[in-house]
Amino acid sequence: MDFKNEKNITIFEHPLIQHKISILRDKNTGTNEFRKLVEEIAMLEGFEALGDLPLQDVEIETPIEKCMTPMISGRKLAIVPILRAGLGMVPGVLALVPSAKVGHIGMYRDEETRIPHEYYCKLPNPIDERIIVVTDPMLATGGSAVDAITQIKEHGGKKIKFMCIIAAPEGVQKLHEEHPDVQIYVGHLDRELNENAYICPGLGDAGDRIFGTK
């Protein structure tokens, strides 16, 4: 599947992002390095994804004189990680916009049906006035991302971006079909999902590798 010409879908080709993702994939990459790489990749992706933040001119005084200079306007940003792996990307985005508010959405996947279920949702208020960045390192079937974004919209969210590090074509297609208004940012588009709905070649379980659990 080729998404390069699809509106609202960005597949990154930046060499720094690709290099860091390759290190993530390595099974010998330890927890500490993995966690730092996830933050760094999120920052690099966020730099691009947040290129359309609204600005307004404000007056400040430099050591030389007063001047009007642009700063981010409005209610700014809300970062909403899909628990728990999405938490690993939050520090990278916060490094770019420290004033951003952080919400949380908890989803789990039924191991038999592979259907995602929500168990927690807490969003910054007012959510309808913010640009919302939903984070999850992996976009596999797309079920969790679709349901999380549906929940955000039901709570009033309107301007939504989704950021992941790796994705399967099936997940990108499903998310784009269900929420065509959402801007999707993908670090690397992997080959496919296998029979167990795991991304191939993938990087293993992102949550386990970020938090050092099994």
Record the SSE blueprint:
Elements: E1 9-11, H1 15-25, H2 31-49, E2 55-61, E3 66-72, E4 77-83, H3 90-96, E5 101-102, E6 104-109, E7 116-122, E8 131-135, E9 138-139, H4 143-154, E10 159-167, H5 169-178, E11 183-189, E12 192-193, E13 199-200, H6 206-211
Parallel strand pairs: 1-11, 4-5, 4-6, 4-8, 8-10, 9-10, 10-11
Antiparallel strand pairs: 2-3, 6-7, 12-13
β-strand percent reads: 25-35%
- Calculate Rg over CA atoms: 18 Å
What is the typical, i.e. mean, pLDDT?
92
Overall strand count: 13
The N- and C-terminal alpha carbons lie at a distance of 32 Å
Net shape: globular
- Report helical residue fraction: 25-40%
Described by strand count, sense and barrel closure, the largest sheet is: 9 strands, mixed
Molecular structure report:
This protein is α/β, with parallel strands linked by helices and 214 residues long. It has six helices and 13 strands. It has helices at residues 15-25, 31-49, 90-96, 143-154, 169-178, 206-211; strands spanning 9-11, 55-61, 66-72, 77-83, 101-102, 104-109, 116-122, 131-135, 138-139, 159-167, 183-189, 192-193, 199-200. Strands 1, 4, 5, 6, 7, 8, 9, 10 and 11 form a nine-stranded mixed sheet that branches. A two-stranded antiparallel sheet has the order 2-3. The model has no long low-confidence stretch (mean pLDDT 92).
